[in-house]
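Thread: Newbie trying to understand structure tokens

Hi all, I'm a second-year student working on a class project, and my supervisor (Dr. K.) asked me to get a predicted structure for one chain before our next meeting. I've only ever worked with sequences, so writing a 3D structure as a token string is new to me. If someone could post the tokens and maybe explain what I'm looking at, I'd be very grateful. Here's the chain:
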Amino acid sequence: MNRSFYQRIFETQQGVQAVPPNEKIADWVLRLICLLFPEKGDCTSKTVTEIEAGFLNLKKELTEILNTTKACSGSNTTEKSDLFFNSVPELYRLLNEDIDAIVDGDPAARTRFEVIRAYPGFYAISFYRIAHALFDLDIPLLPRIITEHAHSKTGIDIHPAAEIGEHFFIDHGTGIVIGETTIIGDHVKLYQGVTLGALSVDKSMAMIKRHPTVEDYVIIYSGATILGGDTVIGHHSIIGGNVWLTKSIPPYSTVYHRPDIEVVEQTEI
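---
Reply by user tm_fold:
Sure, no problem. This is what the structure looks like when written as tokens:
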């Protein structure tokens, strides 16, 4: 390789936005979760003063991260950091609802501790909820970094712009995809391999609702694919495994895929 190639790389780098490493951003999220839920790791605070100090340190770090990525985060980074931490009590309430959803809905879940420490669904949901709170403050880059970290750890891909209600339960979770303009109501349960996606990935649809709406108390079983921005899954519906759905269904519906399976019994020779 000649020197002009290295020069081209160098010139390209001059226009690159300075952003902290993804690991540093993910570590900030993990420490926030650990402060909210000490069961997550060895991060138990001994006093109220220590908890308060922990939040103040995390707020300072968030401001520093936003300042570093100012071209993406916009102005008023201190104000945005304050607004985010003002939303943490509500975030804490939502995450506790999600924990309850898992404990109540999974026969294999014995305790809240087990869910917080071991469940990939809770890991992905907690990262999503933090990323979504940042997204709501018009901070576009950090939320994607945060949810993509959770994606890499769990195989659960939730876009930070998706709108997800309370008491959300992801069971198993690997292979779940929840697209950018998806709307999910309260008390929804998803199994592994579910896709809430778009009918088309044409770039002209970037500002259009292209992912489905899932209303309250819906269960979607493994491998189901639901596509389209006009597709609405009515409340209290059940979507069976491996269903391919591109049109709306009314409330209280049951949709299932009927495969042709034939079992041939053989006698011993």
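A couple of things are worth pointing out once you decode it. The mean pLDDT is 92. The first helix runs from residue 3 to 13. Feel free to ask follow-ups in this thread.
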